[in-house]
What does this fold into?
Amino acid sequence: MAQAIDVKGKLRVGPSPHVRSKRTSAWVMDQVMIALVPPTIAATFFFGWWVLVMVAIGITTAVASEYLYQKLTYKPIKIHDHSAAVTGMLIALSLPVTAPIWMIVFGAVFAIVIVKQFNGGIGRNYFNPAVAARVVIKVLFTPWLANWVLPGGLFGSGYRGVEAIASATPLEFIGNGAQVVPEQVPGIFDLFMGFNIGGNIGETSKFAILIGMLYLIFRRVINPKIPILYIFTTFLVMTLWSSFDFNFELTHILTGTLFFGATYMATDYSSGALTPEGKTVFAIGCGLLTAFFRITLDHPGGVGYSILIMNALAPYIDSKLMPRIYGHKARPQTKFDRQSENV
Amino acid sequence: MSFSFMGKHNGSHPEENKSRTSKLPIVDASVPKIMIFPVSMHIGAPAKPIVEVGDQVKVGQILAEEGGFVSAHVYSSVSGEVIAIEKRGVIGGEADSIIVKNDYKYLKADPIVEPGRSQDMSKDEIISTVRKAGIVGMGGATFPTAVKLSPPPGMTIDTLIINGAECEPYSTSDHRVMVEHADEIISGINLSRTLFPMLRRIYIGIEDNKPDAIKALEDASADFDDIFVRPLKTMYPQGSEKNLIKNLAGREVSPGGLPAEVRCVVANTSTIRSCYRACEFGEPLIERIVSVSGTPIKEPKNLRVKIGTPMDSLIEDCGGFAEVPGKVLGGGPMMGKPVSDLGVPIIKGTTAITVLNPEEAEIGDEQDCIMCSECINVCPVSLQPILISEAFERGNIDKAKELGAMDCIECGNCSFICPSKIPLLDNIRSAKAAIKQKEEK
It folds into this structure.
């Protein structure tokens, strides 16, 4: 039995399973970045080349601050999981084109160092870093943010543009108790495509976000029920609130951060719910809260608040909705306490 | 790629890699000079050798007798001389083994029962014949079949489930048995009617990636209106006993319970076929079908193998290796056991030999959990593998138990799917061991 190849001492042993799926954590993060490309292109088209500078600053600051933090605290460097880059990109895209550079830098550092690393690093943070950063920016720096500008085209306006026209976001007309859409608000089609509306650069074109959402769904990176249930719940509440004014509901779900938040932020792994039913409750909760804030607040920001509140509730939701194990009568009754630090 | 809208699908989709062997008819493996018969090819007490070095044995002669109620006889599959009784490497460890030098005369021992009267056998006769034939679960579990066929008193069986799922990648032995021996499977099923007089439904569960097997069994069972051939979605681990019972009979076995408590018996296709052959032809279990496949294998095959044949002889039959193998497994890549030496013999529960190249056997570096929840989505018994794994790593054994560690069926889906390559199943296994140890104290 002469064997052409001698295997003695070459065979590996080890417990089953002996194969692994090709998917890696870095690949998952890369998919999110790819899905953020359509909104980035749309933003560049509407708000000018400065958008690309903003995104570059966001990514660079986020990755650099993660690297520095881990270096200074003698922790293993983990920037190669690409999660910091995603956070940086999200922060840049959720600011208006008038946002000064220091604001992007502040947001990225705050998100990475305070929200993510202080809470134990990747997979351990209970709050979505990008959402927390944008809410903090909104609260602290509103005077620098209020000047929403209308898009000026690929080569127009931008941060340096002197002719930026201040405008209100459509939300300011339909929020705060309104039940009908006033005339100042752009039409449904413009809202969907992002034509002639001001706002945070990555969030104006729902069409571009939808492409990103579908990409993530078909890559099986996000669970489709999160964005769908989130948006649908807000839609449903608004339908009831406006007594079935179809135009009003559509205008609502197509304005503000709803699409962007539902696609890229509520679907975040660490800060969202872990269990299958918990995810359903999480998404519906986000939708209900967003509708509530839209109706009661006189300023934008409802999506951010909603996601943060649901982030805080997620561990509790998970502990109540742990899946029933095969053959058992009840769900496991145990506290949901995740490890707080990566070892 | 299959797509589940709501995320939770209780299974995964490893690459199937069955196409190289799924269409190949079963062929006889060559029989080497030296055959190795471990006395422990089953779950339960090892068999006790009843031959001595120097004895001449025949094909179908008992080498070792069952060592208890949960045990099984070991037969010689060749004729020749017993040249040693010693410890030898086997799949998954070491065991006392009886070594027989093949004389290539194939002198036959008497059949274990008078052939041709399986139809007239009583319940007790069938069970004793199955016991005498040394039949164990041939899908890999190797639990003595006679024990399985005698449910504890007070438990009636109304559903028989024949497991033809064969969800392990690469493996095609059950597939070929179903295509080529569908009639014998149906005959085996018909014997079970004597065993379980209350039997109402018989399900044959086959993954839908084997349409020819589904067709063959539908044709063979056309005359029986209580036999239902059920295509199952191709998904790992569709062939796990608990999940078959849930998916086909709509029942769930309680933690630590037997299928019989929910009036079910589950048997593998090859096992039920062997039961028929034992009763009808008086054949003990000395042969089985083994698929040999994997990237480094030159010519993959489905082989009819005499139990006791060392692996290297089968690999030789398949043209040897085209490249240096990384891992050689007894069984498939999800639940199979690796061997470090190719001299180990094929035993009753060896469904396949799967060879991975070094690249395929690469596990990847462990990274931090990103909480993607995929391990939860793919767990067939709805555990939360990452939470059990973390509880164990923190030393919180009670928590691991509360989270259901003992319900783990060790299918490996969680470790397979994890994008951060966390050894989830290893940790859960360790947690189970720690829980058992704690309870024994």
User: Anything to note?
Assistant: Chain A has one domain: 26-320.
